[in-house]
Amino acid sequence: MLVLIACLTVPLSAVTNLLVKKPFGELVGSLFDTAPRLSPETPAQFAIVVLIFGAFAEEVAKTLPFLIPRLRRIIAGDPGMAGFAAGIGFGVGEALYVAAALATSEEFASRSALEFQPFILERIAATYLHAVLTAIVFSGGVRARSVGPGLVVAVSLHVLANAGALLYQLGAIPAPLATLEFGLVLVLATVVWIRVRQARRP
After folding, report:
1. By C-alpha distance, which of 116, 115, 153 is closest to 134?
2. pLDDT of residue 85
3. Is the pLDDT of residue 177 over 60?
4. Residue 74 above 90 pLDDT?
5. DSSP secondary structure string, the chain?
6. Residue 200 confidence class, pLDDT cut points 50, 70, 90
7. 92-127, pLDDT tens digit by residue?
8. 20 to 30 A from 193, CA-CA: which of 53, 86, 138, 200?
9. pLDDT (tens digit, 9 = 90+) per residue, 19-61?
């Protein structure tokens, strides 16, 4: 059943990006009179709105298995493992979505496979983060009988995790600092998950 939960979330990244985040970015971009792509010229207000909404949209998408009554009963048995499965599925789908976008980009067409090693490592770390955050949401959902409290925590951590990359794209910080910031949030999310896991034990 964990495999089923993971498979269910694989396509959700592409769906969320194409049908939710992209149209929202274009709408907000038109309101701020700016291109939806982040750059040093991007208005800070636009960047903040997109950052928060993107994290919220992805965390909500990953709760889909929890909203299916039959799966919710299975998730209740071990919400941590079920959350990990859902997050890993979403992360794998996100990696495939980003890889497909890079494969069709002329900018990356001439690059060697070795140049994509940082991308692979970043995707592994991002998939782990998705897994931890979804485990927090599912565990909180079983305890509180609502995904609301867990979503607040997960979205907050997700925003923090993406903040470094966003600041780098805006030209505010160098790449090493953005990587360090992401790593620290990864550790923080793991600590939060351990605390949630321990709190659930009798």
Report:
1. 153
2. 95
3. yes
4. no
5. -HHHHHHHHTTHHHHHIIIIIHHHHHHHHHHTTS-SS--TTS-HHHHHHHHHHHHHHHHHHTTHHHHSHHHHHHHHH-HHHHHHHHHHHHHHHHHHHHHHHHHT-HHHHT--GGGGHHHHHHHHHHHHHHHHHHHHHHHHHHHHSSSHHHHHHHHHHHHHHHHHHHHHHTTSS-HHHHHHHHHHHHHHHHHHHHHHHHHH--
6. low
7. 999 999 888 877 776 666 666 566 778 889 999 999
8. 53
9. 999 999 999 999 989 988 888 899 999 999 999 999 999 999 9
Instruction: State phi, psi for 121 to the nearest 5 degrees.
Output: -65, -40
Domain spans, the chain: 2-200
**CA 157 to centroid of chain Cα atoms:** 10
Assigned token pair, 43: 């208005």
Which pLDDT score is estimated for 46? 95
- The tokens 């991002």 sit on which residue? 126
| Burial letters 109-127, b for 16+ CB under 10 A, else e | eeeeeeeeeeeeeebebbb
Q: Are the C-beta atoms of residues 1 and 53 closer than 8 Å to each other?
A: no
